[in-house]
Amino acid sequence: MENGVTDRLWDREVQEFIAACRQEKLSDISVNQLDTENGQSLLSVSATYRSRNGRILPVGYRWTKSRSGPMGEVYIGRANAPAGLELDGLFWLALRSGLWVERRHVAFALLALTDLQSKADGVRVRLQLEYLKVLGGNEPGAQARELTLQTLNDLAYLYGTRSTPTA
């Protein structure tokens, strides 16, 4: 089992995911999975953002329900907006979160989260297939899903930054 999955970790997509985890303003990155009613599996990403004055805010990419189906949303603190906003829309999100002074940093951190979610989704599909090839037996799908999510979180932990408590 190890060889196929280990080989997969050197793929370009996985290396891009690792590079996305190294965003300087994000720390404590975690990847979560949401299963919808119609059997769709969606990934959300959460992290923490440390402002210049030391405020630590939760940031992330999550899925919300809408009339047309699940819709991506980015958030920082209590402020949220639909995913896919242009830079000026993310500036307004920084204003609503009380971080207008560092709006560029907030905007780029939110863009990095969107990129991270996209890359994690692509990596998830490939890793899950690799785990399915190896596992077999009873309920390989559920076990492959759990192993894939664990691998993504391990990569985010190893290659991302962790917040340090303030003294």
Biggest sheet record: 5 strands, antiparallel
Task: Work out the helix count.
Answer: 5
Percent in helix: 40-55%
Average pLDDT, all residues: 88
Q: Could you tell me how far the N terminus lies from the C terminus, measured between alpha carbons in angstroms?
A: 44 Å
Topology:
Elements: H1 2-8, H2 12-21, E1 26-35, E2 41-50, E3 56-64, E4 71-76, E5 79-82, H3 87-96, H4 103-135, H5 140-159
Antiparallel strand pairs: 1-2, 2-3, 3-4, 4-5
Helix pairs in contact: 2-4, 3-4, 4-5
Key terms for this structure?
167 residues, alpha+beta, five-stranded antiparallel β-sheet, 5 helices, 5 strands, 48% helix
What does this structure look like?
With about 170 residues, the chain is of the alpha+beta class. Helix content is about 50%, strand content about 25%. The protein has five helices and five strands. It has helices at about 1-10, 10-20, 85-95, 105-135, 140-160, and strands at about 25-35, 40-50, 55-65, 70-75, 80. It has a five-stranded antiparallel beta sheet with strand order 1-2-3-4-5. Helix 2 runs antiparallel to helix 4 and helix 3 (about 85-95) crosses helix 4 (about 105-135). The radius of gyration is 17 Å and the shape is globular.
